[in-house]
Design goal:
single chain, alpha+beta, 60s Ribosomal Protein L30, Chain: A, three-stranded antiparallel β-sheet, 9 strands
Length: 236
Amino acid sequence: MSFALRSFNVTVPQAPPGLKAIPVRTGLVRPDDDLIALIRAATAGIAQRGDVVAVSESAVAIAQGEFLAAEHVRPSRLAYALSRRTGALATVNQPESMQLVIDRVGTWRVVYATVAHTIARAAGRRGKFYELMGDAVTAFDGYTGTLPPYERAIVFAPRDSDGFAQLFYERTGVACAVVDANDLGKAKVLGATAGVRRNVVEAALLENPHGNSDEQTPVVVLKWRGGGDSPLVEVA
């Protein structure tokens, strides 16, 4: 049984005209689920060869058990102080998430990045903290309070996104990309089947058809309707 919602014409100027994005609802993803089987069932009759199935990084990570309840983290005073200085939409605006960053890279590196960020901001430059922290910040998502039972879960980056995407292709015959997209107009491919044009997939997801609330649509099927060879996947 498929669970497609309405399709969207991708209209951002960064993407070639003719792309369609189809959000697909799935059942609730749980640890140790066979996520590929779950997605294959949900996209039956929708995803075909030549398409790219874009899967939320959070869904892959949860199926792998890569998340932690916020109640299991004990934030330090530093974590509380720094989290209050971040923007409302920042990944580390919760003290528990900030504490995990501190645990990962060490107190002194976080303090250094904070001082550098303060100096850079006074000079009119933003984002220095995130630039210096790099993967330490982007390796997980803070809890969002949108979808039980994960409303207080800190979700880490999935393991081996390229491997998951390649296995998806081997089992289904359809190309796959594991993606991190949000409502801030940003999208990044973390892993993909060989031949997937990552820049095109990222452009197609800038409007975040996955949604960031409780849509329960961790899968978006990208289709090419422009005629000729698809820009989504390289022709062998």
